[in-house]
Design a protein that fits this description.
The protein is an all-alpha fold. The chain contains 2 helices and no strands.
Length: 107
């Protein structure tokens, strides 16, 4: 059965754990290492993608999916990295979907 439950990222949470604040330091280091390696490879893929578009006039799907995976992982860990939640993300990238929704302005 497909679980279509969506939750908004970067929501305000009042309660925070002091213990989690200390654990977060180790998590920052581990996620930072993964982000650095993943980001470096994604940067190389972006560079190759640029040449692919320049020469062939189209995008390579595999390169695009790898770069997309990096961007999704980056967004997935940001709410933890910037103290928005105490819910720890996985250290290794997991498939997540990031969606954009335009909100109505209150005039």
């Amino acid at each position: 059965m497909c679980n279509d439950a969506k939750k908004q990222l970067f929501m305000y949470e009042h309660d925070a754990s002091r213990l989690e604040l200390l654990i977060r330091i180790l998590y920052w280091i581990l996620i930072g290492i993964v982000m650095a390696i993943y980001g470096f490879i994604a940067g190389i893929c972006s560079f190759i993608q640029w040449f692919h578009i320049l020469i062939l006039g189209s995008r390579n799907e595999s390169l695009s999916n790898f770069i997309k995976g990096y961007l999704e992982y980056y967004v997935h860990v940001m709410n933890y990295m910037y103290f928005m939640t105490d819910k720890r993300p996985d250290i290794m990238p997991v498939p997540v979907g990031i969606f954009e929704q335009e909100l109505q302005k209150n005039s």
